[in-house]
Structures are given as structure tokens and as C-alpha cells.
Write a structure and sequence with these properties.
This protein is mainly alpha-helical and 553 residues long. Helix content is 78%, strand content 0%. The chain has 2 domains: 324 residues, no CATH class; 206 residues, Up-down Bundle (Methane Monooxygenase Hydroxylase, Chain G, domain 1).
Length: 553
């Protein structure tokens, strides 16, 4: 029991160190991560590279695949695009094996761990955020290897306690039977610890101590590749249809890879043995053999299956049929599901940014919808009005969901710059929601004008069209600004647009007030003034958005 708790505690320290290191690395490379997310869907190769780099930083393929599932659930990735990233995630998780193989058992881990923690603690007291974040990553790196050192000490050497794991010897040497047993052990181990990286560390420790040989450990590695898919499938249980399909695609990709590897297991393992220096069953060299086996298996699996991504997507679609035979609508967006969101705030923020851009596009679509309704009094546009009302309701739901999501992201460790960005994003969401409300007010005013048959003087229709032009331009300006840094020149341009809108409203309002001297025109002109005020309010909120965006470093 003491031995069990010692191993359990060492694993906990290892996992905590990985978490701290991952959060520190995310803070240091936040800008790069967001650029990575924005470019990750260009083609299959970029998707694979993105998945690999994300997993290398997060140090958990499970966390990466859960994020990919949430991206698909938010309709930020298509099923086909997600499969490329899932392939990359499998390759990225092999970096843990190489880190442990080269540094983990080569020399005294305490000689690495304690200096890393000491230097890292000193660095977190610096004023520069990058230095502090790098110090946090270094502390995590040190804790990780301290945990690995304790794990190495907790697991007894095979020479000193030959009877402790004697049952492992009974499972070895049975050909494919042994492969099946150790494969199953790898699946169960990964499901229990919920991390392929931790399961890999346990496997490497057992191999380094001589409890299992190279081929047995390689079979466990194959099992870990299947076991790691369970996390994503659990996360997708409460998600949408497309997210479930992405999780199934991950499962099928790994299962297909294991199936062909089972048939070629001994030839493939032998090939790795021949190209890797040293005796594979010598604990000193076993780690390098395993690291290369893990990498080459995943790399080969990607090369074999990447031409069949579309077929894999079709298979996943058949495995998870749409409810009632109806495919999910394109309008779906992310929903707040804290238990299923991994603690990777920097990457989660990229998803929130995309959702905000989608909400900004919605404001433009609604404003143009108002103009369409206002300028076509002779057409029956009741269906279009209902669509615009649905858009306004969707904007309210979007604002609520994104706000909750951003608040959840702040529970992760974020850099000071990212926390400031979250604050700005929350205020931008509020401004966008106000614009949607103003636009829907305009739609209702236009509807009332035609229902009540309010008659306005000739030329007011053209005046509204001209007045709406700069506002539409303003909306396009802030949509574009969401994807780039806002400069002082941009703020000056925005202020000029706002001044133009204000001047136009004052001129048109004065004209309306003059026409109100005739009491027959009062109700029509009051409605006209309400329209002008709401359009001008959209200009005010647009300027506020530009000013907020300028606060992001």
C-alpha cells in the first residue's frame, strides 16, 4: 500500500508539473498560438502541423482532441478539417517520450529538477510578463522531472524485488498473445489516468526498471493510442452531432492504425530495433527504441490514412447519424460546458475570438436586412422580418454563451495581456449586442411605418439610404479591425466616420422638426426621428468597439 501511494503521488506531481509547464508555455507563446489557430484549416498538411504543435505545447493529446471536438461543436472546424488536426495531435504526443528518453533517466533528475524550480521561482518576481511566464514554464518543467525522479525511485528495481512484478514475466514470450495482453493493459492504463503522456511515463519507467521488455512496452504504447480516444468521446457525449462525429473519427483513426500495426507488429518492431543504436532489451537503450517506435508508428499511420480523410469523415458520419435524419444547421455555436473544456485558456480564447467575429458579421447582416425591409414597402417581407427577429434572439444567446465561455477561460492561467484582452472582448460583446438591439428596433420601426401607413415626404427614403451608407461602412470597419491591431490612424478614421454620422443626423433631424409644424406630419416625423436616432446609436457603439480594440496590445 505504501508503494502504491508513493507511485500515485509521484504520478500526481508529474501531472501537475506538466500542467504548470503547459500553462507557462501557452502564456509565452500566446500570440503564436492564436496565429496557429487562425491558419490551421488551410489544408490537411497545415492541420496536421497545427495539431502537432498544439499537443507539443499542451503536452496532452487528450486535451488537444477535446479542444478540437469543441471547435467542431462550435462549427469553427468542419469534420474533415478536424481529422487532420487529430492526426497531428497523435504525432505531437510523441514528444513526451523523447523528453523522458533523453532527459528522464539519463542522469540524476534531481540535478535538473531543483535548479529549474529555483531559477523559475526567481524569474516569476521579474516585472516583464514574458520573463515571469517563462519562469512559470521552468517551474513546471522542474516539477515534472521531480515527479519523474520520485516515480523512478518508487518503482523498485527488478533485481532487488524480482517477485513484485513476477506476473509480468508470465505474460511475456507468448507471441501475439503477449501483444494482445499488453495492448489491453495500455488501453486500461490510459483510460484510468486520462492522459497518454502520464501513461507513457509509466510505461517508460517500467521499461527503464527492466520490468517489461521492448516489444511488451511497444504493445502498451499501441494500447495507449486507443485509450487516449476515450477522453474525447466522453467530452462529446453532451455535444452536438458533428462533435460526436469528430470524436468517432479520432477513435477510428487510431483503431485502423492499430489494426494494421498488429499484423506488422514484429517486422515493424524489428525494423525500429535495427535502425536504433543499442540492444532493445537493455533498459539503457529501450527508451530510445520506444520513443522512435511511438513516433514512427504515428507518422506512418498518418501517411497511410491521410489520403482517406474524406472516407474517414463519411464513416464517422454513418456511425453518428443526424437526429431525425436532419443534418445540424450551420448556425450552431459554441455552448458553455465547463467539464468538457480543457484548461488551455490561450487556445480557448482563439475560439471565443472567432465567435465574436461571427457575432460582428451578424450585426452587418441585420443592418442590411433593415435596409432591405425599409426600401421595399411594396413587397411582403414578413418572412424576412421573422428571420431578422430570429437573428436578434440568436445575438442575445451568443452574447450570453460567449460571456460565460470567456469567464470560464479566465479560470485558466492567462497572461496579463490575455486577461486584458478578455476584458476588452467582454465589453465588445456588450456593444455588439446593443447594435443588434438597435438594428431590430429599426426593423420594427420600418414594419410599423408600413403597417400604420405613415407617409413621409419625398426624398426621405433617399436620405435614409445615404445616412445608412457610412454606418454600413463603419460596421465593415470594426469587423475588419477584429482581425488586426487597431492603430491611432484607425481611431482617427473611426472618429471621422462618427462625426459624419452625427452631422447627418442633426441635419436630417432639423428638417424633420421643421416639417412637424404641420400637425398631420407629427406621428410620421416622430417615427422618422426614431429611425435616425437608432442609426446614429449604431455609429456610437461602432466607435466604442474601435476604441476598445485599440486597448489590446
Amino acid at each position: 500500500m505504501t508503494l502504491f501511494f508513493a507511485i500515485f503521488g509521484a504520478l500526481g506531481l508529474f501531472l501537475y508539473g506538466m500542467k504548470v509547464m503547459s500553462e507557462g508555455l501557452q502564456k509565452v507563446s500566446g500570440e503564436g498560438l492564436r496565429a496557429l489557430i487562425s491558419n490551421m484549416t488551410r489544408n490537411r498538411l497545415s492541420g496536421i502541423i497545427s495539431g502537432t504543435l498544439m499537443t507539443t505545447l499542451v503536452q496532452s493529446s487528450s486535451a488537444t482532441t477535446v479542444m478540437i471536438v469543441s471547435f467542431v461543436n462550435a462549427r469553427l472546424l468542419t469534420l474533415t478539417e478536424s481529422i487532420g488536426m487529430i492526426m497531428g495531435a497523435n504525432l505531437g504526443t510523441t514528444t513526451t517520450f523523447w523528453i523522458v528518453a533523453f532527459l528522464g533517466f539519463k542522469f540524476s533528475l534531481a540535478k535538473i529538477a531543483l535548479p529549474c524550480v529555483g531559477i523559475g521561482v526567481a524569474m516569476i518576481f521579474f516585472k516583464r510578463p514574458k520573463v515571469r511566464d517563462s519562469g512559470e514554464a521552468l517551474i513546471g518543467f522542474g516539477i515534472l522531472f521531480l515527479g519523474l525522479s520520485l516515480l523512478k525511485k518508487a518503482v523498485p528495481d527488478v533485481k532487488s524485488d524480482p517477485e513484485l512484478f513476477a506476473f509480468l514475466a508470465d505474460w511475456s514470450g507468448m507471441g501475439m498473445g503477449s501483444v494482445a495482453i499488453f495492448f489491453l493493459f495500455g488501453v486500461i492504463l490510459t483510460v484510468v489516468v486520462q492522459s497518454s503522456s502520464v501513461a507513457g511515463a509509466i510505461t517508460l519507467t517500467l521499461a527503464a526498471k527492466g520490468w517489461i521488455g521492448y516489444e511488451d512496452a511497444a504493445a502498451i504504447v499501441l494500447g495507449e493510442n486507443v485509450g487516449t480516444t476515450i477522453t474525447a468521446n466522453l467530452a462529446a457525449m453532451t455535444a452536438g452531432t458533428e462533435a460526436k462525429r469528430a470524436a468517432r473519427a479520432h477513435f477510428m483513426f487510431n483503431i485502423v492504425g492499430v489494426c494494421w500495426m498488429i499484423f506488422l507488429f514484429y517486422p515493424f518492431a524489428g525494423l525500429i530495433d535495427r535502425i536504433t543504436p543499442g540492444d532493445a532489451n537493455n533498459p539503457t537503450y529501450t527508451l530510445y527504441h520506444l520513443a522512435l517506435f511511438h513516433t514512427m508508428f504515428n507518422l506512418t499511420n498518418i501517411c497511410v490514412q491521410v489520403p482517406f480523410v474524406k472516407q474517414l469523415a463519411k464513416l464517422a458520419t454513418k456511425m453518428v447519424p443526424a437526429k431525425d435524419g436532419n443534418e445540424p444547421e450551420q448556425g450552431e455555436h459554441m455552448t458553455y460546458q465547463a467539464p468538457n473544456l480543457p484548461q488551455t485558456g490561450e487556445i480557448n480564447l482563439a475560439e471565443a475570438e472567432r465567435e465574436i467575429k461571427g457575432m460582428a458579421e451578424l450585426t452587418r447582416e441585420m443592418f442590411r436586412g433593415f435596409n432591405e425591409v425599409y426600401e421595399n414597402p411594396d413587397k411582403d417581407l414578413s418572412v424576412r422580418v421573422k428571420e431578422l427577429k430570429a437573428m436578434e434572439e440568436r445575438s442575445d444567446q451568443l452574447a450570453f454563451d460567449i460571456t460565460q465561455y470567456l469567464i470560464y477561460c479566465t479560470s485558466s492561467e492567462l497572461s496579463r495581456e490575455r486577461l486584458n484582452e478578455v476584458t476588452v472582448m467582454l465589453r465588445v460583446i456588450s456593444e455588439l449586442e446593443e447594435i443588434c438591439d438597435c438594428t431590430y428596433n429599426l426593423v420594427r420601426l420600418a414594419e410599423r411605418k408600413y403597417n400604420k401607413q405613415r407617409v413621409l415626404p419625398e426624398g426621405t427614403q433617399e436620405a435614409i439610404r445615404n445616412f445608412s451608407g457610412p454606418v454600413d461602412q463603419f460596421i465593415g470597419f470594426y469587423i475588419e479591425s477584429l482581425s488586426k491591431k487597431v492603430s491611432m490612424a484607425d481611431i482617427e478614421t473611426a472618429q471621422q466616420l462618427e462625426d459624419t454620422i452625427d452631422a447627418s443626423r442633426k441635419k436630417l433631424r432639423k428638417e424633420a422638426v421643421r416639417r412637424m409644424s404641420d400637425q398631420a406630419n407629427i406621428k410620421s416625423e416622430m417615427l422618422y426621428i426614431d429611425i435616425l436616432n437608432n442609426i446614429e446609436s449604431i455609429g456610437d457603439h461602432s466607435l466604442n468597439i474601435l476604441k476598445l480594440l485599440s486597448q489590446i496590445d
